[in-house]
Amino acid sequence: MATLFSRPCTSALCNCTTPSDVISRRSLLTGGGAALALGASAIAPRFIAEAVAQTLATRIDVHHHVSPPTWLDALKSMKKGNAPIMNWSAQKSIDDMDKGGVATALTSPAPPHLQGLDKAATVRLARETNEYAKKLEVQYPGRFGTWAMLPLPHVDESLKEIEYAFDTLKVDGVGCMTSYGDMWLGYAEFEPVWAELNRRKATVYTHPTRANCCVNVVRGIDDAFIEFGTDTARAIFTVVYGGVAEKYPDINWIWSHGGGALTALAERFLKRAVLMAPHKGNFTTERVNIQLRRFYYDTALVLNEITLAAMVKLMPISRIVYGTDFPYSSSVDYTKGLPTFFQGDDLKAIERENALRLVPRLKSA
Q1: What DSSP string describes 271-287?
Q2: Beta bridge partner(s), residue 184
Q3: Which of 333, 304, 289, 315 is closest to 63 using CA atoms?
Q4: What is the dihedral sign for C-alpha 108, 109, 113, 114?
Q5: How much is the mean pLDDT over the chain?
Q6: What are phi and psi for residue 278, nearest 5 degrees?
Q7: Where exactly does CATH 3.20.20.140 map onto the chain?
Q8: According to the model, what pLDDT value does residue 210 have?
């Protein structure tokens, strides 16, 4: 079994204060005191019910999208918005989490992140997005965490944002796309970013996107149906066979959607590639398998027996984490669906305990 990495993390935002109407989860447990704090007895029953729902929630969602206002405005200007992200609100997130028993959601914007913008806009919106995400943590104590968005593919600017995000905002990790234009995560151009994140023992959550090569490949098929899973596999291949995974072992990688097409391509990853140039003699099946089994993989949009069965053949239960892909899917679906395949300690590990190794501060959230 590969070594399990963890790192300390806090959630205070140095230049923000908690709004006066935000009450801690501990105070919510007092029931009557919570109603008095609101100063409106008529809404006390609903308020107390919400408090109880939060205390009973245990799941940690590592794949939960939010729509920061200035980021959403940029997407609209590029005509890249869609109904789920354009209609998102923090309250809708909270409502869905409560219905599905989700204690905390680790947030990131949906694809295409910042692709299509110039460098100045990319840098500005990355900062504004990360600050917005941290303010959600303050406004809703214990309910949100943050995967910071980086202004990639701009490496120097990303290094500056990493410093600010971790040292000032105290984020839980970073969130990246699987590719940026014609470059995938394992390419040498990104190595300074991985070196710094490895130094920080950081978690890198990844989400697929549309690569330049493969937009509208097949007429009438949305890129998310096939290309997203394929791009995840491309990124994993470059991180493993580009040497990034071995060189920077203290990065905790999370791959969305169960690793995309990885399970279908396992034979090629583990056996075929090691026998062919340029990888022959440089990699072995055992070395590749070690890396694939130490990565983390979320359950978003893989709620079916075929994919889940393949995942548990390729990766340990200890490396599968709960993800919903909200607002494109609902936590209720996963609360009902995962127990049809996983039970007992395995289910507990996937829904919460595995994520706590990545974000240990949530033990007390």
Answers
A1: IIGGGSTTTBTTB-HHH
A2: 179
A3: 333
A4: negative
A5: 87
A6: -90, 10
A7: 59-364
A8: 83
